[in-house]
Amino acid sequence: MGIRRAATAVVAMTGALLASTVLVAAPAMAHGSMGNPVSRIYQCFTEGPENPRSAACKAAVQVGQSWPIYDWDEVNQPNANGNSRQIIPDGKLCSAGRDKYKGLDLPRADWPATTLPTGAYTFTYKATAPHPGTFELYVTKQGYDPTKPLKWSDLEATPFYKQLNPPRASGSYQLKATIPSGRTGRHLIFSIWQRHKPDSGEAFYSCSDVLFN
């Protein structure tokens, strides 16, 4: 009987450990990054993490090595819970405050940029693991200086786009937004994809450099 009880205890403990492993791993299931306008990390990934073409991506790899670029869809905070401004410090928005992605925070005026119009525009957010959540898009204020570390105060206080569970097509979320007018030159689009409890408090972030003509 003692042996049977011990075997039963081992099975129970093993099941509990497996269950806890699943629960811990669950937040990592929702992955993605902005595809258009392309995010910094996805741009560097498409250039090739080992031998990127652009000067900015080369610098990012030099600072943070090439291996983080392969995880282009994992710039996240696992327990953001809608508190992004509180947990991500100024100067580290593009890395989500994670040292792993510190190369993305480099203040430079030569990050590859996408030319955008103001007004109606459909952003596409590449999702390698779709999951329910709210998307928010922020744009930098006129006068933004890309050669200085990005701060929360560089962004408009409210998002120009916010939607729960936008439609998805061809592997990407379709974010149909209206970009505010009054901007010219180089700017940055900052995205937050926030999941919600009880599913998960995880959030994903991306920085997309843009040019307004």
UniProtKB/TrEMBL annotation:
SUPFAM superfamilies in UniProt: E set domains (SSF81296)
UniProt feature coiled coil, ranges: none
Keyword tags: Signal
UniProt domain Chitin-binding type-4: residue ranges: 31-210
Signal peptide segment: 1-25
Alphabetical list of InterPro entries matching this protein: Cellulose/chitin-bd_N (IPR004302), GlcNAc_Chitin_IntDeg (IPR051024), Ig_E-set (IPR014756)
Top-level taxon in the UniProt lineage: Bacteria
UniProt KW Signal keyword: yes
A Pfam family of this chain: LPMO_10
Keyword Signal applies: yes
Protein name, per record: Chitin-binding type-4 domain-containing protein
Organism of origin: Actinokineospora globicatena
